[in-house]
Specification:
The protein is built from three helices and 16 strands. The model has no long low-confidence stretch (mean pLDDT about 95). The strands form four sheets. A six-stranded mixed β-sheet has the order 12-14-15-1-16-13. Strands 2, 4, 6 and 10 form a four-stranded mixed β-sheet that branches. Strands 7-8-11-9 form a four-stranded antiparallel β-sheet. The radius of gyration is 18 Å and the shape is globular. About 15% of the residues lie in helices and about 30% in strands. By secondary structure, the chain is an alpha/beta fold.
Length: about 240
């Protein structure tokens, strides 16, 4: 099986633009005592509903907090997500809320890497037997008539880069907050041992890279779905 990095096809001529943010989120970490880092990650779980949480206001404003506050809020969320879900600082939940305008292809990407798909395109892919495609409702208002129905695809973070593509002497992730010890390498190499056997679209868990299988690429080509380009990535 071959694998590919997903990028937006900027040459396709589509003008679609979404100005939106997920409804809730964990805070980023400020001055972590383990690495002294201040940061927030980029995982998104648009299917997760946080309304059972007692104080939703704690999750409604993007910000950084001392690590103890992040950890407290993380544990309030944990019962609402599947076991093993990665809940790093800055993780977001719930539907994207905002506005949209322009002409959209079958797919489009937000500036944060969120993958959006027109409903009819998703239904075609699901009919082809593509695995793990979960489309989530978006609360976006269009500034035009005849607007498409856009869904956000929930990409599960499950794979990792192979250690051979990391620079010599790189530091491991912070044991307290999980912050990566090195920036994303230029030449990517996926670790075959971490690749999912049941997903055709997913993220890397260490650097939040959008990835897909050749099954996904072939189906998009066969169905004439536009808006993405696929860059092959090596596996070891």
């Amino acid at each position: 099986m071959r694998y590919f990095v997903i990028k937006e096809d900027r040459s396709a001529g589509y003008t679609g633009f979404v100005d939106a943010a997920h409804k809730w989120g964990l805070p980023g970490v400020r001055n972590c005592p383990g690495c002294n880092g201040t940061w927030a990650g980029g995982f998104a779980y648009p299917s997760v509903d946080l309304t059972p949480v007692a104080v939703l206001a704690d999750f409604e404003k993007a910000r950084t907090e001392p690590i103890e506050e992040y950890e407290r809020l993380r544990e309030l969320v944990r019962p609402l997500v599947p076991p093993g879900t990665l809940l790093e600082p800055g993780t977001t939940f719930g539907p994207s809320v905002g506005t949209a305008q322009g002409r959209f292809g079958s797919f489009s990407l937000s500036c944060l890497g969120d993958v959006m798909v027109r409903r009819e395109a998703l239904e075609k892919l699901q009919a082809e037997g593509l695995r793990g495609l979960k489309g989530c409702h978006m609360q976006v208002r269009f500034r035009q008539r005849n607007a498409p129905e856009l869904l956000e695809l929930e990409l599960v973070p499950v794979s990792q880069l192979h250690p051979d593509c990391l620079p010599p002497g790189h530091k491991p992730p912070c044991p307290r907050c999980g912050r990566p010890g090195v920036g994303k390498p230029k030449d990517l190499l996926l670790d075959a041992r971490t690749l999912p056997a049941d997903l055709d679209l997913f993220r890397s868990a260490d650097y939040s890279i959008e990835l897909c299988t050749e099954r996904f690429v072939d189906a998009c080509g066969r169905l004439g779905l536009e808006g993405l380009v696929f860059l092959p990535v090596c596996v070891a």
